[in-house]
Amino acid sequence: MPLPAPARRALHLLPLLAVIALLATPPLGGDGSATAADAACGVLVLWALLRVLRSGERPLSRRAAIVMGLPVTGICVAAMGAADPSTAIAGLGRYLQIFVLVPLAVLLLLRDRDDFRVAAGAVVALALFEGAVGVEQYLTATGASYMGEDIRAVGTFGASDIMGMSTVVSCGLLCSIGLALDPAPGASRTRRRAALGCAALLLLPLAVSFSRGAWIATAVAACTVLLLSGVRRALVVLAALTAASVVLVGASGSGSRMLQERLSSITQVESAPDQSVTDRYTMWAAAEQMWRRSPLSGVGLKGFPDHRDANSSLALSSGSDTAGAGAAFKRQPLLSPHNMYLLVLSEQGLIGVVTLAGGWAALLVAGVRRLHRARRRGAPLDCALVAAGLLTWLLVDFFYGDIGGPSTALTALVIGLAAWWALAARGAATT
């Protein structure tokens, strides 16, 4: 007896859904080690490869092959220039996993819009789970330490990856907004209302993550999605969100003061920066110095930690403090500039920046162009809005963060979803 369509779809997407689900699990061997999601990424790549071999069809268009293969050049050149071969091999594998192999696997695995919606819905489900854990941490003071209190929501990622939950929640929020704002006449009202409700629920965990970078990136990406869905609708929704934010901050009890202070600190990064901001500025300057010494190919993959002290001023602290969420106090070393563009510039030089960032820019441009073509045909725009929102969030967030930690696999999935909308065969993206 043949399986029903929903069961066949779930089976087909099982490796992708497994990666999303396993993002909530801790590292397999402690902080900084591989995770179950990383292992699932390997299975996902093999699954996509087998599907291509079985189909016997040409898997990629020429444009898709160029855009998705472009980062390989800079990554390989930087790996050859690394001082430590073992470190270079590890860095090469990680960069290829996140920016090439997993996005390619997602691009090849998704067959149509329904597959895309299932993947986006899985991200929303993960975000709701992580957000619920985070809100409980905030309300019960069992989260990561923040200003002397264990109230920072970090979900299952722990104090060692304080950006993990905010990353997942931000992506889930943007998926919900994109699914809710589809202006096409045939869009499902039930799905739109459910997605809007999920977006509203995810605002609180995002707020109590106290992540300034995630707030900024989510605000920019959400505004982008709203504008792409229609200017008139954008104005109405922005007014409603502003009112909801005021109510949210007012209803957060004793935490409202901390939220207000955290929000106001965004505008004080120049006049009165805290130590975390000072450290970030210092590491940004160090990354720039590394690039000036080797402008074309950088200092090599994973080379930033080895060259940091020689290029930093005395303003740099020895590390950042982490505690809470079930973990003891720990001093975390500062091993990256917390800016993906400067990290690539320092370690891979201009070759790496042009190939990596150039590929991301190509995805964004191609995705927006396809969105406008779909609008003219009256086709559904939910997948387009989700892809544009996720990629915009990632490109903005890369100004304040970089890859690293258990949540990194989600970065690869985001690029893969954006690549599917921008580069998939026209028939797949329009069905």
Descriptive overview:
The protein is mainly alpha-helical. It has one domain (11-25, 35-271, 333-430). It has 17 helices and four strands. The protein has helices at 5-12, 14-22, 36-55, 62-80, 85-109, 113-140, 164-180, 189-207, 212-229, 231-250, 255-265, 275-293, 304-308, 340-377, 382-397, 408-423, 426-430, and strands spanning 144-146, 149-152, 320-324, 327-332. The strands form two sheets. A two-stranded antiparallel sheet has the order 1-2. A two-stranded antiparallel sheet has the order 3-4. The longest helix has 38 residues, at 340-377.
**Count of helical segments?**
17
Please give the number of β-strands: 4
The largest pleated sheet is described as: 2 strands, antiparallel
Content of β-strand: under 5%
Q: Quickly count the domains.
A: 1
Across the major sheet, the strand order is 1-2
What global shape is seen?
A: globular
Q: Structural class given helices, strands, pairing?
A: mainly alpha
Helix content: 55-70%
Helix and strand element order: HHHHHHEEHHHHHHHEEHHHH
Low-confidence stretches: none
CA gyration radius, whole angstroms: 21 Å
Q: What number is the mean pLDDT?
A: 83
Alpha-carbon distance between the two ends: 27 Å
Which helices and strands, and how do they pair?
Elements: H1 5-12, H2 14-22, H3 36-55, H4 62-80, H5 85-109, H6 113-140, E1 144-146, E2 149-152, H7 164-180, H8 189-207, H9 212-229, H10 231-250, H11 255-265, H12 275-293, H13 304-308, E3 320-324, E4 327-332, H14 340-377, H15 382-397, H16 408-423, H17 426-430
Antiparallel strand pairs: 1-2, 3-4
Helix pairs in contact: 2-3, 2-6, 3-5, 4-5, 4-14, 5-16, 6-7, 6-8, 7-8, 7-9, 7-15, 9-10, 9-15, 12-14, 14-15, 14-16, 15-16
